[in-house]
Each structure stands twice: as C-alpha cells, then as structure tokens.
Automatic annotation (TrEMBL):
It comes from Piscibacillus salipiscarius. Residues 11-84 form the YlxR domain. Pfam families: YlxR (PF04296). This is RNase P modulator RnpM. InterPro entries: YlxR, YlxR-like_sf, YlxR_dom. NCBIfam families: RNA_bind_RnpM.
Length: 90
C-alpha cells in the first residue's frame, strides 16, 4: 500500500507569472481597512499577492507597481524594503 503524498499548494508570482509552491513565495496582503503588509504566516485575511523570494523579482515589482494594481492599494516603499530584507534571510 502506497502512502499518498500531500499535494503542494501552488500559487502564482504576480511578477514572473510562475506557478510555485506556496512556501517558495512571500505573500503581501491588504486588509479591509486598506492597510498593506507582509504576511509571514500566509494565512491573514484580506486580498493577497504572491512574490518569488528573489531580490530581482521584488525590485521589478517595485518598478512596475504591480502590487498596487494587484492589491488595489498604494503600497508603501517600506513594504519593499521589508521584502528585500526577508529574501536576504532565505
């Protein structure tokens, strides 16, 4: 009897459009108050957008303002700084 492998949840990076395992991505979320922040748990309520854990992807997201469009909100510069800091760790 073979044990079924648990299915990996896949999400799409809003910059590269790649489908990747959720654990390889960082989620940025906008709650209903309109606040935007980095969701480390990946479980917070609100509209979420996923980014690959690569500095060049985050820089491209910042340049193209893709998170503003995806989250329908103004994403503050410090969010990008926080993201860059997080990918430096991983």
């Amino acid at each position: 009897m073979t044990v079924a492998k648990k299915k990996q949840p896949l999400r799409k990076c809003v910059v590269t459009q790649e489908m990747l395992p959720k654990k390889d991505l960082i989620r940025v979320v906008r709650n209903k108050e309109g606040e935007v922040f980095v969701d480390e748990t990946g479980k917070m309520n609100g509209r979420g957008a996923y980014l690959s854990k690569r500095a060049e992807v985050i820089e491209r997201a910042q340049k193209t303002q893709v998170l503003n469009r995806q989250l329908n909100a103004q994403v503050d510069e410090h969010i990008y700084d926080e993201l860059i800091e997080k990918v430096g760790d991983s």
